[in-house]
Amino acid sequence: MGSRNGKILFALVGVCLLVGAGYVVAAALGPDETTTEARPQVDGAVLAHAHLMVRAVDPANPRLNGRVYEIDGGKARRRSGDLACERVYFAGGRGICMGVAPSGVDYRAQIFDSQLRPVHEFALTGFPSRARVSSDGRYGATTVFVSGDSYLQAPSAFSTRTVIVDLRSGERVGQLEQFDVTKDGKPFDAVDFNFWGVTFVPGDSSRYYATLGTGGSHYLVEGDIAARSMRVLRDGVECPSLSPDGEQIVFKSRVAGSERWRLRVLDVETLADHAVAETRSVDDQVEWLDNETLVYSYEDDLYTVPADGSGEPQLLVRDASSPVRLDRGI
Asked: Where are the beta strands (DSSP E) in 135-260?
């Protein structure tokens, strides 16, 4: 599949405009203007057991890199003086920080350790979109928006690149667009393949789920890094995120005929799903606080909602995004 340059033309006009704005912002930044000193504001509704890593957001300029903070016991504290990201994720003693490079015009990813010290770095080919790390810290996944694929129908259109990285060596393992895919037991291939929203299976770092976009469909795929393969499970799933016990997946479900999404949760065994109580359009790869509670970005703040469809959204942290559930004692 090396000839597959496939990236799907996003009908997500709003997303493209947002990403395009990100490129403009980055292009206008100078070397000393890439990072905000904004600080997350913990709201009184914070759950007592919430223990998170977040990226601070400056509401006046949310595309600036944000410092990394730890939220614990209802308080926010800065874990590192230098680490600043557009997207961050951490698990198993390793993390990925994606953001604007010091040049102000390029993008980079830093791999960091449990003390938030960068240990590897590599260039990104486009605007940071998604980041995930396997539970044992062995693998990481980065997704970026890129432009210029020859089949795209408009100069302003964007496609994706999703790369798996060995977080111990810092070496690239592979690009999902180059992995084999099957659907209904048969080889499946198209020039417009795009992948995003990788989520790793707890306890098995080689296995993952992701979204495959092609021909207007958004398929949930199950993949294996060692086998460099994926299989299609069902349609209508974007930005999947596995629960800590690996039994449920929260995802974005596109509202038909619109550029809006609803959050839904599916059972991994049956693939049946249900809506959660959040009715706003959330464009994020949702995180789990625990096996019963979701946490996600909406505009410049973080909210929680029960995964079973009950309750209602609660404000968790203001001026923060990219939430990461943390284990105690990191």
From this structure: 139-146, 159-166, 172-175, 180-183, 186-187, 194-201, 204-214, 217-224, 229-235, 238-242, 248-254
Whether the predicted pLDDT of 38 surpasses 60: yes
Task: Give the CA angle between residues 17, 200, 277 to the nearest 5°.
Answer: 60
CB 49 within 8 A of CB 310: no
Rounded distance between C-alpha atoms, residue 238 and residue 290, angstroms: 21
Q: Does residue 277 sit within a domain?
A: yes
Whether residue 45 is contained in a domain is answered as yes
Residue 7 forms part of a structural domain: no
Domain residue limits at 161: 13-325
Q: Which residues does 217 contact at the CB level (< 8 Å), separation at least 6?
A: 235, 236
Q: Tell me the whole-structure pTM to 2 decimals.
A: 0.88
The answer as to whether 2 is a domain residue is: no
Lowest-confidence range among 24-38, 62-76, 84-98?
24-38
Number of independent structural domains in the chain: 1
d(CA 275, CA 252): 10
Q: Shortest CA distance to 238 belongs to which of 214, 270, 207, 206?
A: 214
Instruction: Single out the residue of 57, 37, 161, 177 nearest to residue 109, CA to CA.
Output: 161
Residue 103 binned pLDDT confidence (cut-offs 50, 70, 90): confident
Query: How far is C-alpha 20 from the geometric centre of its chain's CA atoms?
Result: 18
Give the integer Cα–Cα distance in Å for 92 and 205. 11
- DSSP letter at 176? G
Q: What is the CATH number of the domain that holds 84?
A: 2.120.10.30
> What mean pLDDT do residues 183-195 have?
96
CA distance 215 to 148: 19
Average pLDDT over residues 115-131: 95
Beta strands at 65-72 and 35-36: parallel, antiparallel or unpaired: parallel
> In Å, what is the CA distance from 67 to each residue of 51, 64, 82, 83, 172?
17, 10, 7, 6, 26
